[in-house]
Amino acid sequence: MLAHVFLHVALCSAVARLSPEANVAMHVRMSYRVGGSELDKVFTFARGDTTQAFVEFDIPQSDYVMRLDVPKYKCSAAEFVHILADQNRKITETLSDRASAEPDPVLLMEGTAPLSFSYVKPTFVLLGNGAACDSPVSACRSPFRRIGAAGRGDVQLNISEEMIDGLALETQAH
Q: Going from the N-terminus, what domains does the chain have, and what CATH number goes with each?
C-alpha cells in the first residue's frame, strides 16, 4: 500500500538567489534504515518567485532516511521519516548551504497511550541487554515489546490508564 508524499522544501540561500526562471535539479533519495533504497529520483523545478519548492511522490509504508541534494549548488538535507500506508504525508525540510551529515540514529516508539499519559511527563530509560534481572530495576515491568525487522531498534509501547493510575498511587505512597 502506498502513501502520497507532499514534500515542501525551503530553499538554501544559493538556490534562493537564482533568477525565478532558473531550473533546479534536486535529487531525492528515500533509503531504508537497514539498507536499500525505495526512491532514488531527480526532480526538476523552476526556482519561481517563492523560497520553497514542492514535489510529490508515492512510496510504501516504512521508516526511511530521506536525503535531499542539489549538487550544483552544494545544498542538502537529511532526516529520518516515518511513512504510514494509505495516508497522505506532508514533509517540510530545509536545504542547508553545506553538506548535511548523516542524521543521528533514532529509536522509534509506536503504540497507544491514554491522554493522561501526556500529563505524567514520562521519562524513558532504556536498559541494555546486559541489565541484571535481580537488580533494583527489575521491579519495573516494561510495557515495551520489540518489533520490526532484524537490525531495527523500534519499540512497541502500549500504556493503559490502569498503568498510569498505578504509577500515581506508587508515587503518592513514597
A: 2-94 (2.60.40), 109-173 (no CATH)
